[in-house]
Amino acid sequence: xxxxxxxxxxxLGLVIDLDICVGCHACVIACKGWNxxxxxxxxxxxxxxxxxxxxxxxxxxxxxEVVPEEGAAQTVHFPKSCLxxxxxxxxxxxxxxxxxxxxxxxxxxxxxxxCIGCGLCAWACPYGAxxxxxxxxxxxxxxxxxxxxxxxxxxxxxxxxxCVRTCPSNARHFGDLADxxxxxxxxxxxxxxxxxxPDLGTRPVNKYLPPxxxxxxxxxxxxxxxxxxxxxxxxxxxxxRQLGKL
Amino acid sequence: xxxxxxxxxxxxxxxxxxxxxxxxxxxxxxxxxxxxxAFHGIGLGLAxxxxxxxxxxxxxxxxxWRSFTQWRTSWLSREAWAAVGALLAASLxxxxxxxxxxxxxxxxxxxxxxxxTVLCTAMIYASIRAVPRWHHWTTPAxxxxxxxxxxxxxxxxxxxxxxxxxxxxxxxxxTWRRGDDAFAxxxxxxxxxxxxxARVEPLERPHTGESYLTHEMVFRVxxxxxxxxxxxxxxxxxxxxxxxxxxxxxxAAGLVALLCFAAGILAQRWLxxxxxxxxxxxxxxxxxxxxx
Amino acid sequence: xxxxxxxxxxxGDEVRKTTCYMCACRCGIDVHVRDGPGGGKVVTYIEGNRDxxxxxxxxxxxxxxxxxxxxxxxxxxxxLRRVGERGEGRFEEITWEEALDLAASWLAxxxxxDPKKLAFFTGRDQSQSFTSWWAQAFGTPNYAxxxxxxxxxxxxxxxxxxxxxxxxxxxxxxxxAKLFLLFGVAEDHDSNPIKMGIGRLKGRGGKIVGxxxxxxxxxxxxxxxxxxxxxxxxxxxxxxIHLLLKAGRIDADYLARWTxxxxxxxxxxxxxxxxxxxxxxxxxxxxxxxxxxxxxPWNGEGVRPLLTGTLDRGGHRHESAFHRIxxxxxxxxxxxxxxxGRTGIPAARIRQLAGEIARAAFEDAEFVPGAWTDFRGERHxxxxxxxxxxxxxxxxSAHANGFQTARAxxxxxxxxGSVEAPGGFRFKPPYPKPVDAHPRPxxxxxxxxxxxxxxxxxxxxxxxxxxxxDGGPKRIDKAYxxxxxxxxxxxxxxxxxxxAKGDPxxxxxxxxxxxxxxxxxxxxxxxxxEALTARGEDGGYRIPKVIYSDxxxxxxxxYADLILPDTTYLERHDCISLLDRPICEADAAADAIRWPVxxxxxxxxxxQTALVQLGAKLGLPGFVEQDGTPAYADYAxxxxxxxxxxxxxxxxxxxxxxxxxxxxxxxxxxxxxxKEAGGFWxxxxxxxxxxxxxxxxGYQDWxxxxxxxxxxxxxxxxxxxxxxxxFQLAAEGKRDPRPPEDRRAALHRQMDPLPVWWDCAxxxxxxxxxxxxxxxxxxxxxxxxxxxxxxxxxxxxxxxxFIPPAVAEAEGLRDGDWARVTSPxxxxxxxxxxQRALNPRTVWTWNAIGKRKRAWGLDADAPEATKGFLxxxxxxxxxxxxxxxxxxxxxxxxxxxxWFDLRVxxxxxxxxxxxRPVLDPLGVPPVTGDGRPDGAxxxxxxxx
Lengths: 246, 292, 944
Ligand SMILES: Nc1nc2c(c(=O)[nH]1)N[C@H]1C(S)=C(S)[C@@H](COP(=O)(O)OP(=O)(O)OC[C@H]3O[C@@H](n4cnc5c(=O)[nH]c(N)nc54)[C@H](O)[C@@H]3O)O[C@H]1N2
Ligand SMILES: Nc1nc2c(c(=O)[nH]1)N[C@H]1C(S)=C(S)[C@@H](COP(=O)(O)OP(=O)(O)OC[C@H]3O[C@@H](n4cnc5c(=O)[nH]c(N)nc54)[C@H](O)[C@@H]3O)O[C@H]1N2
Ligand code: SF4
Ligand code: SF4
Ligand code: SF4
Ligand code: SF4
Ligand code: SF4
Ligand SMILES: [Mo]
Hints:
The complex is a heterotrimer. Chain A is α+β, with helices and mostly antiparallel strands. Chain A contains seven helices and eleven strands. In chain A, the strands form five sheets. In chain A, strands 10-1-11 form a three-stranded mixed sheet. In chain A, strand 2 and strand 3 (54-55) form a beta hairpin. The longest helix of chain A is centred in the last third of the chain and has 14 residues, at 232-245. Chain B is mostly helical. Chain B is globular. The model of chain B has no long low-confidence stretch (mean pLDDT 93). By secondary structure, chain C is α/β, with parallel strands linked by helices. A seven-stranded mixed sheet of chain C has the order 5-4-22-21-20-6-7, with helices on both faces. In chain C, helix 3 packs across helix 18 (607-617) and helix 6 packs across helix 15. The chains are: A alpha+beta, B mainly alpha, C alpha/beta. The B-C interface holds B 69, 201, 203-204, 206-209 and C 1, 216, 794-799, 833, 835-836, 863. Strand 4 of chain A pairs antiparallel with strand 1 (200-204) of chain B, so a sheet runs across the interface. Residues 21-27, 61, 77, 79, 167, 169, 171-172 of chain A line the site of one iron/sulfur cluster (SF4). Chain A: GO terms for molecular function: 4 iron, 4 sulfur cluster binding; metal ion binding.
């Protein structure tokens, strides 16, 4: 099990558009809600109404400021869940085979029935995509909503990850990144989607689309504001002439 | 990384135990009769206590047996096999020794498996790229040297122990030095972690409270605190035992040396975890390298 | 040893479709339920309803977390009667019968003697057409919802100018806009629609410009950010107008046809109508008809108004309003160079923005084909797109110059011809709806009688004010007095203070619903608590009785005498009606219901049902039959059977025999039909009626057809506002009633018929307090009520004060340090966090995260109560004293609470364990106290 498949038939994953993620955390809670009710053990919350509430989440949204050489700082909201890496170190370190990457679609899963909760896979993941649930004692991670995307009890249009379905700004996309023709792949190609920490050799399936350039100075606009009049009477006269032409 | 007491205790105790078993196995000491029972018992006892302690940090210890299945890829699985093998060999060897008929080949096998177990343990850490301080040959090297050093003390190999401890100390200092630059050398920054470029500053964490990730991976230790602990670790694990072993040769001094050493190793192991920067920290605004 | 996960987990065994109320956005939700242990249904999972017009399947964080709200440990269990002192939180549970009898015993004498002694204010009410109807039947003039402290500037500014407003009454044309200007919005009511729209617009390659001192959320994804200095948007916008006018980059044809810019103004300085529209014999405003060069009524058949018309008559020259517009805004006062210092936006950036607006509006604007006929009878082959959309909310309206700033934005929109044009800003039914289609305000209370008309309305001039002979206010909140002439939503934030002071008079009963007035919805929680606990000379409370309805143990609960516990939103009937704030979109009229998808299992009742029953007990007209028996059993009964006008009721769908929509008699099956249809009803605006609605005969006819109004009501956008001008005339002494002497000069300035800007900084102590202090709504938290939610509170459990680097440097502050923040009104000590993308003169924090200890079912050491803090402690309903006088900290036109005019000073403080002020823990009223155990809702077989 902990052998990584030599290759996968498909590489299902997410494409996250940092240009339009508004940081609303909708995906965080939709993920919590679905996965609490579905795959494996529930996602517990310790001390839920107390001083140190702490729960298990499979998807979390950070925010950062990007400080350019020149111009105003920018804020970027940054959702992060398992990237379903091709060379997933979290899989190979697992002593029990609970951590696995599926050959058919590349989804990285934890078989919770086999997991001893040693935490090693979470250490091995460079991205912080795994959390051990303190109540169930097993490792939890993004399942890519395997129990939605193949769930024939759900209407066809709902067979997509809960986070994708809920994202109000449409910043999250789901697809087969191994298929260059998939909408997800085309989006990645068009927008120069990138990997997180590519040098670590994990080869993430999930891709991020960069924020588009911001605060660009547009200098070609000046002629548009060429004055036609300095005085009200001038403007009125000019308008009369313009309207007369209509 | 979070310095979990169970793991620190595990590796310290089992390191000592396996160390002693190595010296017994290679026949560096060959106790007989009740002494044999005592020495082998101590070695096995420490190793087993350590291994048992390590299960405390499992979420589902009752399924620990499953960790034998993945020896092809997982150092933890290999460690499980090696540990069982080592304990088996060491126990058989102990039996033969106590019965007064030690089988040297069995001893050598036991010693090899004990070292292999420690190597596997160390490789669990060394294999993790996300923790560059660990991801280096010095990790198994220091683990092995410390293991042998401890074993030598237990086996009362005065001179050898002193030599090993000094060597381990030197290697440890070098390891720390290297480790201090390891994160930077990895070249990962919050910029590469997010792909957002040169200057990226954290604004808000995903949750205002803590999480498994912040507890487990975003442990931060102050530089001055760490420096002090390093000194203490060296004093306790190297300087004090060496001094005691070489200059105050007595059983009592040997015991004190051992206790000093164990305390020093606890400090070293605490640092081993506490100082280890995980790339996850980048997402949480914990800059790579040592903090001030 | 393969792993075969259960790919078809059942998260529930039935889906029930209703409407979310984790905030006021009204998204459609699919609530998954299954059989619970007690026989009833339990909620297991909530997701968005894909067919719903508001959210089309998406949900925000709060919406998905509704499950946890529904399981909040802070849920009230039964009616409560106070047994301790106010504020102690000690209560006994009583029966509903006792509760309603008690309420009736307090209210009946009030109604019989002096109905105005009931002040009934309803907070975040989604049933205002019902609660106001109740209040009207009771006869008190003292009714309003929360709009006065929320965003009445936006509503009034829009309605007085365009006959419709931003807020949730209109929307950008997300599918056609190319440039989108967003002023002062962090989240807004259209939470999901705005996010969906932003995604769509950016997906099409459109450009978003965020104008906001803080760059988070929507402003973070904006392509261009203008980090404006708070309170100066009016200046920025007027400068844009200056540049566009100067360059002739305006839509003159649009202005001439659809706005009152061509309307002639009375040029006789002596006339009592000076600068009011000149009217013809039929009383209609006059324009010069381009076809004839002669005056003609604005709406005459085939008339082509001349934008620049003048008329010499009676020895005076009467010029079109456009002369005033050009005259005012071409002045150098509005040149970018003149405003850059104040706004913090460099002149070059202002020019860039004006250039972008001009380019998007005029350079490649398509002509969208589609036949339609305007109200003058002219047929058009389509609509000229002006793909510049704008939206603004509280960043503009929560300043004391917000009304005029909102008007300035609307003027800008109209100048470029983008209102109701493709790509611009579009109204959602029941808007457009001009001032004249709104009622006037009413306040004549007669013992034992209903009020003489609706409470809230739109004054046409000073004659509509609610003031007595002496000029004093008739309402407890002084709405529609000289202090707040256009207070179209009332002034809820003034009620408790005024009532406790007896200014203008005392009341016997304060009844409130869904407003946490003892905490985050008050400008100053401390003073609100004081007002609620103040005692008179006789030792009794100065506000003798407080009735409050909440669903949860909020801070306010502790301060009431009688609590009418509400259900959660999944347990009651609600009606999101075309009569108040429906779920319409630009292309459709729509309304919706909530219904009990699960039964409460506690002694709680929907507040509206409680009001129906209380109304019957009091014998209020409309609530009882002729014979005195209750007219309605409960709110559901009311929803189905009440008719506001013949054939028009709370719900528009499936009326009469179930086949008529909009108009028709009551249908006993109506709610069932809604349930079957997914909880909502829609009726699409016909193709040719989609744009230019105020002027589009097709739209007007359709709106009459579905009952939005009774006759077509086309109108012109009022760029030059006649109602405002009438107030000016009163200030000039040319019209009655006249304002008090000392108010005249200021009133004249404030009621300018053209948008103006004034500085709010000085009055708020800018000299000593150099920084602006703001709050923003976090997207994942709704005011105070999200903190009881175990999932949401992990995201926002504390709130730092965000400070710009310059302040951090000057004060030696680093992330996690503590600072003392002082305003003219108070002081707090709080943790700070540096933010770079922030106006250098501004600090801010997330709104309403801080909690009173032990409120909301949280432990006393919950981070919300130790490190979380409220900015409100620094605010006041009044401005700092000046010359012995204190003016309201409100917009002088509408009375809108000026939350964001706050000025502060920030200094480093010692690190602390708790934010200051540290208040005592509240007593905990009886609550369910349970919360939802981990994994409570999963199927046993799904485990493992
Ligand atoms: N500093 C600062 N203060 C502000 C603002 C700001 O921007 N800055 N914004 C202001 C604005 S615009 C507003 S609208 C107010 C909002 O402030 P509030 O109106 O106080 O809003 P909430 O805190 O959301 O909730 C009001 C009450 O409704 C109760 N409630 C929730 N659900 C139900 C229900 O189903 N039934 C009943 N009966 N009660 C329920 C909650 O428990 C809570 O006690 O805050 C204002 N305060
Ligand atoms: N998630 C969530 N949604 C909500 C609510 C909630 O509590 N939570 N509350 C609902 C309610 S009651 C309301 S009223 C709406 C309000 O919705 P918004 O209008 O979005 O309210 P605020 O969060 O107060 O945002 C005000 C914004 O204006 C900015 N601002 C302040 N002063 C100025 C200024 O002078 N100029 C400009 N350009 N910007 C300025 C602030 O930085 C902030 O971004 O949201 C509603 N939606
Ligand atoms: S739901 Fe979408 S917009 Fe919201 S935080 Fe997640 S990815 Fe970003
Ligand atoms: S992101 Fe982490 S958990 Fe997911 S596959 Fe990659 S390494 Fe494993
Ligand atoms: S925690 Fe579970 S999944 Fe992770 S490595 Fe250990 S056994 Fe494998
Ligand atoms: S794919 Fe499913 S499990 Fe993964 S983050 Fe999205 S919702 Fe969570
Ligand atoms: S925006 Fe969110 S909380 Fe508000 S109604 Fe929609 S889903 Fe519910
Ligand atoms: Mo509001």
